[in-house]
């Protein structure tokens, strides 16, 4: 019996089962490695602009604190539930361990449709959520970050609320803050840059010249837009993008800087061009060199996996590929090179770690230093994944997750069980 349920949590459990079987982890160890240490559900009442009171449900799941504080984003979306949040926290644990960060995974969120609340109500909700979380978070317990539906401004409100409670400014309680409030240069771009950097590395492995290559981006939020911009700067043509409002397709290549300016002003890609409008359902199966799913979980099922026409699948989102689709991709390893999510989008948490370190030290780096260190960590993790995959003759996702799970398991075993 468990409080966690839903397709996303079931997917995380399924993936862990595959890894646990591969690593031959005894059955009596598995629940201790997999099940979250702590889950919190809170009510977040706020004053609406019309004078009424509304209550929203919020969550925070801390997977494990064996290697250090937990770390993870906070999403504001109508899809948020405790099962989804738990799955994302579990994936974050494997991600942090894979890239060598001293963190366990966490995730949080509020079930809210942002289109139904004003900016003032968003501030009230953000502050109330953090106020409810104060007994359970801290710079050495659980450090929050942005996710879907949250941004630098929300992180600033989180930080200010926590600081007011402490009676002093505590910048290190969250990452992804504005640079003017203790954030780090390069954090906003970090996840998308990392996705593009690893995709370019794979193109080199496959002897594909970026200058003649094409890319398709599903999701044009922070991750997708910066991945598109960076890939375009590497010489790729971005032939299609989509978000929740629709899709655009231009075989000659889209103007990504112009599209980013439009999305920043309008809040979406809607209205950018009626001539380039395209069916979003066909986007994932367009012929291209690099496909970046950077939107939601579970968008690539077995049927989509069978019809993928990309050479590189760079998972910018968390959990975009179902276990059934993974079985299809395993058979297509020679055709589709998978960069699994826990590696591909890890640039965000890597630079969040840098922000946390800089805040603790009150010593800040230049952006070139941040980016250089980010790419060095991504290179090391990518090399470890490839080496493991080739040595054990296993898919890339299995190799990446096995490295992460092994590290968490080893840390738990060496520390023992208290009491």
Automatic annotation (TrEMBL):
| SUPFAM superfamilies given in the database record | Aminoacid dehydrogenase-like, N-terminal domain, NAD(P)-binding Rossmann-fold domains
The active site is formed by: 107 (proton donor)
Domain annotation Glutamate/phenylalanine/leucine/valine/L-tryptophan dehydrogenase C-terminal: ranges? 184-416
Query: PROSITE patterns in the record, alphabetically?
Result: GLFV_DEHYDROGENASE
For this UniProt entry, the molecular function terms from Gene Ontology, in alphabetical order, are: glutamate dehydrogenase (NAD+) activity; nucleotide binding
| InterPro entries in the cross-refs | Aminoacid_DH-like_N_sf (IPR046346), Glu/Leu/Phe/Val/Trp_DH (IPR006095), Glu/Leu/Phe/Val/Trp_DH_C (IPR006096), Glu/Leu/Phe/Val/Trp_DH_dimer (IPR006097), Glu/Leu/Phe/Val_DH_AS (IPR033524), Glu_DH (IPR014362), NAD(P)-bd_dom_sf (IPR036291), NAD_bind_Glu_DH (IPR033922)
Alphabetized, the UniProt keywords read: NAD, Nucleotide-binding, Oxidoreductase
Q: An example of a Gene Ontology BP annotation on this entry?
A: L-glutamate catabolic process
Taxonomically, the superkingdom here is: Bacteria
Which sites bind substrate?
A: 71, 95, 352
> Is Repressor there in the keyword field?
no
**Binding residues annotated for NAD(+), in chain numbering:** 191, 222
Q: Matching SMART domains, A to Z? A: ELFV_dehydrog (SM00839)
Q: Does ATP-binding appear among the keywords?
A: no
Annotated positions for site Important for catalysis: 147
Member of which family?
Belongs to the Glu/Leu/Phe/Val dehydrogenases family.
- The protein in question is named Glutamate dehydrogenase
Recorded source organism is: Bradyrhizobium archetypum
Supply the source organism's classification.
Bacteria, Pseudomonadati, Pseudomonadota, Alphaproteobacteria, Hyphomicrobiales
